[in-house]
Amino acid sequence: MESDSLIIIPTYNEKENIASILHVVLGMKEHQFDALVIDDNSPDGTGAIVDDLIKTEFPDRLHIIKRTGKLGLGTAYIAGFKWALEHDYQYIIEMDADFSHRPQDLIPLQAACATGGADVAVGSRYINGVNVVNWPMGRILMSYFASKYVRIITGMHVHDTTAGFVCYRRQVLESIDLDKIEFKGYAFQIEMKYTAYKMGFKIVEVPIVFVNRVLGTSKMNSSIFGEAMFGVIKLKWSSTFDRKHKFTRKTASTASGSSHSS
6 φ, ψ to 5°? Predict the structure, then answer.
């Protein structure tokens, strides 16, 4: 049975987590997901672990794109989005490799788009209070108020604007000119949501529990929040003075689709 849903997992030095997360998400009984790993030439051998899983366990459901180095989270997801559209997936989900995004939350996230009427479903840490486990208080406050700030500046009715656990209907990604998405780091998450919002797509938040990684090293630092803070001002400026260029949906004739071949 072919899957209609693809999970995109960017990786850099995730050898402690990658096999475990892939076994869980590809083994789920409630819904069949396929997975695409975007590996930025991890020196710890993450890519080789995925290669082995493709050969021995998941030849038709697990795929990998290997890049030359650390090229940025945003460009990793853009590469994954384009691959997903080329291979005719209907629901495309962003997910971290380190179990901070719980696999069981994939089900309601995908369902929000598949049957719940959402165009974009955001796995939200802040829609029902603060649902974050094992983060230092300083990091929780930084993340929470960053999302508040983005919400105020942009006018989006989204509580977790910086969330990285997101499901898109393919029509959203087909409509956005992915080559015009500017941000490479975590501000990419804000830009994608804001672009969908300005195009009139329906964004809903699905409550999740976010769990701090146990294994491996976090890639988060204060400069990431700095990018988000200044980037959102640029986004708002663009939406005011460059609306036609950036926030007009692509025509249907530009959409692509084919079979699920790798």
Answer: -120, 130
